Amino acid sequence: MTSKSGSRWNFLQQAVASVESRLDDILAEDADRPKRTHTPAHNKKRKNSSQDLLTTADVFVASADLSRSSSTASSSNDRLQERLARAMAKKNVSRTESPVPTQEQSSRPASRGGDVSTSLSDATNVADSPPLNTDQIDIAPRTSSDVGESVRQDVGSDIPASLNQAVVEPERPGAAAIVMEQPDRDAPRPSAESLRHSQAGSNRVSEDVQRTNEDDGLKLDNDDTREIQEEMGTYLERIDALRRNLERLGQEVAQSAQKAAESAKQGAASAEAGSLEQKLLQKDEQIAVLIEEGTRWSKTELDLRNMLKKVRAQALTTTKEQEAARQRADRAERALRSMEDRARKAEAASKRAEHSLAAHAVAAKDVEAMRKERDALNATLAEMKSQLSKANSRAEAAESKVQSEQWEKERRRIVELQDDLTVAKVEREISEGKLKKEIHDLRGELEKQKERTHAMETEMLSEQAILESKLESFRVRAEEASSADHGHAQAKLLRQIEALQTQYTTASQNWQGIESSLLGRITNLEKERDDVVRSEAELRKKLREATLRLKNAERELANTQSTYADMDKSLADANAETRRLQRKVTQLETDLANALKDLEEQKGNSERELQRRIDEEKSKWTAALHIQRTDSPAASIRKNSGLAFDINHLMSPTQYERGSSRRPSIMPNAFDSNTPPRQQSTTSFRGLVNGSIAETPSGVTSMDPDEYFANIPPTPLTTSHHSQRGGLNDLISTSTVGAGPSVQLVERMSANVRRLESEKAASKDELARLTTQRDEARQEVVSLMREVEAKRKIEERLEALEKEHASLSARHQTTLELLGEKSEEVEELKADIVDVKQMYRQLADTMK
């Protein structure tokens, strides 16, 4: 059930949202159209026509709001509707206060046969009359197309020069001043020649002025009327399109309401009779019927408003026509009186001129002085006008500044009030939740009390039945016991008691039935009230959640932007660190490859050098052993020395080769340059002469070449042998000393090998560590890329939310701007009307 009602509620919300979006699109298209820059009058007409279109759209929005007022719209929409209604009311007030142009004023022909004074009076009357407002010209297209055609015919009719200037270009008072100053500048002077030809000259001057003004006015009128007709045609087409769209949207809303009503009816028919689901479906059906009725009433209201506009426009036109006719009659009477006065004055002046021809020179001088004075007054008037315009501009600037400050204060106050309102709403909802909880607890206790009372009632009824049965048994016993008249009277009393008891039981049962029905009705009413309160609370909760989501979205946007900036920075740092580590890894790999290459080269060089020296030592040892076998002192030395090993193994080079081949890895990479020189055998020979043995090894058990060469002492030789055979001694000394690498050389080579192996192991460990760091960096980069993707999605979501927020803010700002522009335009038009009236009055006073 809740899913069906929720689906219908969503459908209605979608329909209302579609209507609002279409209206917003129409308003945006109207506001975004570029305005052509022509004369100020054209700009005003375009502005007024666009305002009329917005007025029509506002009227439809008001009607649409009336149609969906039953669907419990949100508070933001209510505020928007109130502002739009206020704007529409101000527009209607400005339309009713502003004058409407009449056909007679726009098509009044100019009299060609009058004199200069007549044209001057006409211009003065035109100046005194209120200026035509372009807003009234655009009222007619909003009412009907027939009135628009009449307005176009009125605009296209023949208009006099002075009135044309006042109608088409109301913001150019200079042209009106020229028209009004021209008759005075060309007026006849009190001279004899002017008195003779006064009538002919006045006729010629008036005809020339009227001809030139009519030519200029006709040219301007043709261009202006053509452009006005084109603009009116476009605006009428747009208005018709808007009306068709509005009618179509109203039909769609009505169809959606009908569909909702039909679905509610079907659901009510399918639901069980008397169930809560059926009641809810009936309520939904009633709501749909109310919505449909609201749409019908909104259409009726729109039609009635259009009819009221037409009637008001017709009433205004009739009143204006009557006023214009009365003004024309008054002006004609005044012109007739002035013409009679001027005729009498002209006759008297002609009589006086005939008697004062001698004073013509003086009069000419006076006329020249008056002309100069008039020029000076005109200059003073122009200066005063410029000062007045400057003062008006300064006043407008100050007023706009004050208004902007006031608006800013009001906006801040509105924001504060909105915050206070949200806080109050939250507190109220908290208190409502507490009260609801208390009500729920009280209801539970009430149910428990009801159950207890019901149990007590059942117990009492059972006891009453038991007592009645006992009473019946007692009555039977009494009847049996009583046989006389006394017993008969007791039986009657008992029967009466029984009848009263039965009446009491029936009355109590009836009262219990009435009480149960009343309690059921009370519970049903309480349930309905709870449902209404719950729906209202849900709507308020949705509104609060929407506002909170908006605020949370804004906060999340700010936080996300800050975190995004931090993550961008950390990502850049991680990328830089990754690049640095990659460079370090590549450098270490190249260093390791170079080290391995150098190690292989040094190993090959050392093996080759070792093989070469081994070959040399082989040849030397072979020669030395061959000499020692043939020499007796060597044998005696061997006997006296007591060596614990057999020297014959030195003659077999295969053992040395096997030993050297067993341990090739212990050999150094390169021989040390600091190897000490070979020791000469002279000291050992001197020691052996004294009968002592130098550096006799304790025992040789290893057949390793390194250990063997490390434990072999220098070969001792006798002095006599050395003295007798010097060449042999030299050979023996060199062969015995250079029999193999020394201990220091082997230790250094072993240390170098161990150092290289440790460096190799360290490089391997460093390479493994760098590999792990590279893998970790890759994993971090992958995680960062995933976070970046998630942030991009969040940014896209935030951009969508920002666009929605911007659209809502733009709509709100547009309504506020429209309201402000309308009020400002009304105030400006009123001020302009007052200023123009004052200027015309001053000009009329100065010209008189």
UniProtKB/TrEMBL annotation:
<dbReference type="InterPro" id="IPR052602">
    <property type="entry name" value="Growth_transcription_reg"/>
</dbReference>
<protein>
    <submittedName>
        <fullName>Unplaced genomic scaffold supercont1.1, whole genome shotgun sequence</fullName>
    </submittedName>
</protein>
<dbReference type="GO" id="GO:0005794">
    <property type="term" value="C:Golgi apparatus"/>
</dbReference>
<feature type="region of interest" description="Disordered">
    <location>
        <begin position="708"/>
        <end position="730"/>
    </location>
</feature>
<feature type="compositionally biased region" description="Low complexity">
    <location>
        <begin position="62"/>
        <end position="76"/>
    </location>
</feature>
<keyword id="KW-0333">Golgi apparatus</keyword>
<feature type="domain" description="TATA element modulatory factor 1 TATA binding">
    <location>
        <begin position="733"/>
        <end position="847"/>
    </location>
</feature>
<feature type="compositionally biased region" description="Basic and acidic residues">
    <location>
        <begin position="320"/>
        <end position="342"/>
    </location>
</feature>
<feature type="compositionally biased region" description="Basic residues">
    <location>
        <begin position="35"/>
        <end position="48"/>
    </location>
</feature>
<dbReference type="GO" id="GO:0005783">
    <property type="term" value="C:endoplasmic reticulum"/>
</dbReference>
<dbReference type="InterPro" id="IPR022092">
    <property type="entry name" value="TMF_DNA-bd"/>
</dbReference>
<dbReference type="Pfam" id="PF12325">
    <property type="entry name" value="TMF_TATA_bd"/>
</dbReference>
<dbReference type="Pfam" id="PF12329">
    <property type="entry name" value="TMF_DNA_bd"/>
</dbReference>
<feature type="coiled-coil region">
    <location>
        <begin position="225"/>
        <end position="259"/>
    </location>
</feature>
<feature type="region of interest" description="Disordered">
    <location>
        <begin position="181"/>
        <end position="221"/>
    </location>
</feature>
<feature type="coiled-coil region">
    <location>
        <begin position="490"/>
        <end position="616"/>
    </location>
</feature>
<feature type="region of interest" description="Disordered">
    <location>
        <begin position="655"/>
        <end position="684"/>
    </location>
</feature>
<keyword id="KW-0175">Coiled coil</keyword>
<feature type="compositionally biased region" description="Polar residues">
    <location>
        <begin position="95"/>
        <end position="109"/>
    </location>
</feature>
<feature type="compositionally biased region" description="Polar residues">
    <location>
        <begin position="116"/>
        <end position="147"/>
    </location>
</feature>
<feature type="compositionally biased region" description="Basic and acidic residues">
    <location>
        <begin position="205"/>
        <end position="221"/>
    </location>
</feature>
<feature type="compositionally biased region" description="Polar residues">
    <location>
        <begin position="671"/>
        <end position="684"/>
    </location>
</feature>
<feature type="region of interest" description="Disordered">
    <location>
        <begin position="316"/>
        <end position="342"/>
    </location>
</feature>
<feature type="region of interest" description="Disordered">
    <location>
        <begin position="27"/>
        <end position="162"/>
    </location>
</feature>
<feature type="coiled-coil region">
    <location>
        <begin position="746"/>
        <end position="846"/>
    </location>
</feature>
<dbReference type="InterPro" id="IPR022091">
    <property type="entry name" value="TMF_TATA-bd"/>
</dbReference>
